[in-house]
DNA sequence: TCGGCTACCACTTTTGAACTGC
DNA sequence: AGCAGTTCAAAAGTGGTAGCCG
């Protein structure tokens, strides 16, 4: 599986470092079920280009492992649901003065649809067409390496949704499908932007963060882990593991146990019997109860083999690390400016929508994905595919088209170029960059460097401006003062679209395919 | 009939404005 | 007047569940 594509990946329980592989390595061959894994490409541009030396440590990895062993499930709702455990990383090895953009995407883990049957996940058929691929850009982006390395980088505000037409910028997923989050670190180039030919970036994949999306929890073990570890679910914590709240709600003096709980406790308490029975009968579904007991719950019914046994086999080392540097001018992004994703995102005050300018054909962010998807999406989701790249008037018609930005390609057989849709909660309005002509290796995002004013707020943040109780960079309360200016002003993208942003402009330079922050 | 999805519920944490004291 | 700390209400985030839908 994955590590087979990347030779000599080392798992050091934190950041893994792969052997360097020549850039000529055919990237298309580095594809796998969770998307292509790209080996580090040696940098040749001096110390400022050493993005391959960046190390990323997954925060609360042990917790992630607990969930992973049980088969992580993530709730997706129409309104969007946060991930738990939340995706937090500790970054090191950055150039303190270089500016980076950190972003996350979530790619399909395979091309199957799953169902939870007999206490394990089974393949239930072919995956549904992939949702429009979206990127979640960390709210602090762009920021200096010093900023990112100072504290934990938290993506806890990332939300997952099953609403195909989600207007809030949440990452769109299909229910009952397996997914793999990926972290991308993009370096701003010498023009105080990225998207140009010198843009470098790297991708980090922590396999313990893979999950199956659900609309309601299937595995009670996951439910219990969430309740035990998520502060917001404290209300569901009962003494000695009993669902006291449920019984309290229903005015009963005895604990009420959910269907899943009954099912799983039954299996758990009688697992030895069931297991023996299964061993005698050879019934795979009965055998699965043993798999549950041993913490192996994800299964791949293709072979009636526990999914995680095969799946996890490919998960060590837990981090696959690959970097890529664009040198070929033909690879760099062709940016075109389009209308905002939404002129006035309903109820979203500070969310901002970015999208990749073109099909990001590198394994990291783009491999266009799923021809089937193209044929089955709502029409409005595909309008943008036909829209002309580059500057153009903003109209309501094209507004809806902004929704269509497909994901990366997890499987080599999909080869339709579909640009990416990137989102960030960092900005208060929307910007859109038109899909350009497909590049062999365009960089991942169009978001670029902030203006000088903006930058002033980033590197020199006094530690006191951060929450003393939390050292997590999350662009939230502890940084509200720092980014106060952003909340009340307007960004404009010259030639096509504008976004609100204080005193700065988000300028897309069509001539050099790069984006720039400029002072307003 | 059944599995999946949605809306709603009660509860908890988080957030930010208002207030107070120095 | 300005700052730091506290208080408190509103907002947001949880899993459970009834009911709807295909």
Automatic annotation (TrEMBL):
Pfam families: T-box. GO terms for molecular function: DNA-binding transcription factor activity, RNA polymerase II-specific; RNA polymerase II cis-regulatory region sequence-specific DNA binding. Keywords: DNA-binding, Nucleus, Transcription, Transcription regulation. GO terms for cellular component: chromatin; cytoplasm; nucleus. It is found in: Cytoplasm; Nucleus. SUPFAM superfamilies: p53-like transcription factors. Residues 58-238 form the T-box domain. GO terms for biological process: angiogenesis; cell fate specification; positive regulation of DNA-templated transcription. CDD domains: T-box_TBX4_5-like. InterPro entries: p53-like_TF_DNA-bd_sf, T-box_DNA-bd, T-box_sf, TF_T-box, TF_T-box_CS. This is T-box domain-containing protein. The lineage of its organism: Eukaryota, Metazoa, Chordata, Craniata, Vertebrata. The gene is tbx4.
